[in-house]
Amino acid sequence: MGAGMSIRQAMLAILERGPMYGYQLRAEFEQRTGETWPLNIGQVYTTLTRLERDGLVEVVGHGGADEGDRAADQAGSDRQHVSYRATEAGRSEVSAWFATPVPRTQPARDELAIKLAIAVTLPGVDVGTIIQRQRSATMASLQDYTRLKRTGRAATPEEPADLAWSLVLDSLVFDAEAEVRWLDHCEARLRRAALEPGRGAVRHESPAVTTAEEPVR
Amino acid sequence: MSAVLHLAAVSRVHGEGATEVHALRDVTFRAHPGELVAVMGPSGSGKSTLLTLAGGLDAPTTGSVWIEGTDLASLDQAGRARMRRTSVGYVFQDFNLIPALTAAENVALPRELDGEKGKVARRLALTALEEVGIAHLADRFPDEMSGGQQQRVAIARAIVGDRRLILADEPTGALDTDTGEEILQLLRARCDAGAAGVMVTHEARHAAWADRVVFLRDGVVVDETGADEPEALLAGEAGR
């Protein structure tokens, strides 16, 4: 998946602002993205180690760490006192990242699309109920994002990082909205297919889509 | 806290025999003070019928509709009309302002119909216009205002005189995204201030402003999100 890649690029890009410790880097990332994609600190240092290996970042100082501990450089506790900065090669990688569109040729694996794709082909699966449960769950998330958007720092952005967070929330809102629309669309198409036998609807013992008499719960 | 609006086992059947249509089947629904409820469903699911019954514009075939503790069936026509003017505010997709009246006159109209003196009604209208942020447009006519401004006037008309139940039928349907969000902010603020709101919408992003989202299919409530009663939430807060 592309997520690991984008974290690496994002960390490298944030380092353009100046040298940082791993904890600072994580804080800067989360200030812009909320807790949408939480980073554990081990992941941050693993990524920094790889970036260093690839010559994209370099260590600028061992502030706070005792000189004698240098030998134990790979120990996590010591690495926390190491500060990193982007190299020239790192900076050109960041420029290339911003200059290149994120490819959509290989869509991220979408568990919901896969689930429905399988469900509509299996007899005895109540697709209507799957759709309704999903719609309620997605709607509940959409309500949460909307609440975050209209309260807190996203509602009244004071600095660029607040605005960034508000835009990330917008992205989540658009995604969830698109999912609800897609579910509405699937439901309408399945209903139509159920009314017109021979148009691709799976023959079920019970109707494919929940009928009015049967509330979901 | 008792519900401002309570539909108790409500059904509505249009027509008879072969042409019989069940618009709503045995729907029970409540809206409490401080709560904004969104109703979602495809066309023909019964959401407009629900709103019409809630506003006393139509009567259920079976079941009952209660507004602030009064069974609408116990009122005569004049009583229902008064209930609509004093307790219920209606907001429509296409604003429904009277073109020959200014913003302030449109907002004052329900109060004047209710027997309020012209001056008092105008003062109340100006307060309501102030609340929706357009006091400065009080003397404009609808065709001198943008869609968003007209919908603000319509909301002012719906809340004038402290009405506690706001019914909104696709209130953002005729507006662009940003203007729509401003209108939702107003409805939200009104509910946060203690009114009960019921909003019919087919837009998920607008329904997301609600505390609860109710899904209608073929006249039946099939599911809802955030179904916790507000008092249960408050009790949870207190216990923390």
TrEMBL record, chain B:
Keyword set includes Transport: yes
Entry keyword ATP-binding: yes
Ranges of residues in domain ABC transporter: 5-238
InterPro entries hit by this protein: AAA+_ATPase, ABC_transporter-like_ATP-bd, ABC_transporter-like_CS, ABC_transpr_LolD-like, MacB-like_ATP-bd, P-loop_NTPase
GO MF terms held by the record: ATP binding
Sorted UniProt keywords: ATP-binding, Nucleotide-binding, Transport
SUPFAM superfamilies according to UniProt: P-loop containing nucleoside triphosphate hydrolases
Domain of life (superkingdom): Bacteria
PANTHER family in the record: ABC TRANSPORTER RELATED, IMPORT ATP-BINDING PROTEIN
Name of the protein in its database record: ABC transporter ATP-binding protein
Record lineage: Bacteria, Bacillati, Actinomycetota, Actinomycetes, Propionibacteriales
